[in-house]
Amino acid sequence: MNQFTELAPVILFVGFYFTTKDIYLSTSVLMIAVVCQIGIEHFRPGTIKPMSHIVLWSVLLFGSLTLFFQNETFIQWKPTIINWAFALILWGSQFIGGKSPIKAVLGKQISLPEQVWIRLGYGWALGFFVAGSLNLIIAYNFSLDFWVTYKLVGGFGLTLMYLVISVTYLVKSGHLSETTTPPTEHQ
């Protein structure tokens, strides 16, 4: 259910676009869907994830600019800005604060040496930078139809690819095996 809630706004955006071929109506639907997504998260146990806040405000900002100026370029730039922001956060966190956001998320599930967390952070930072750059290449060199399709399929495909690369790295370097256990509270 949680994954569906996270994917629903993008699926609705793409569905409305290909049904109506109206990027502005689709952008409005995306904005409404993300607000509804936050509402659903609000009523679930726990708190709203920081990522959801980032998505909400970026969709509202770039969606509003798209609608106000009647220019789809703004909504096309949103994935790039978000991906580059994540890249900067992952890269910058190695220097400022010295804490790996990836370790903060996954550190309770898997115990890894600090250097491995740093490498994973750099790898994912590079991945987010590439994803943002690829989004711009597609937005400026292909049709709007192609970009909308890429938004649905490409983003998930790239994330899956980064995940496979990360797991492969961990397995090949001997940091992930069937005997790997979550860290204890004393670690």
From TrEMBL:
InterPro entries registered for this protein in UniProt: YciB (IPR006008)
One Pfam family recorded for the sequence: IspA
Transmembrane in keyword set: yes
Spans through the membrane: 23-40, 52-69, 81-98, 119-140, 152-171
One Gene Ontology cellular component annotation held by this UniProt entry: plasma membrane
Keyword terms of this UniProt record: Cell membrane, Membrane, Transmembrane, Transmembrane helix
Transmembrane in keyword set: yes
HAMAP family named in the record: YciB (MF_00189)
Name listed for the protein in its UniProt record: Intracellular septation protein A
Organism, scientific name: marine metagenome
Top-level taxonomy: unclassified sequences, metagenomes, ecological metagenomes
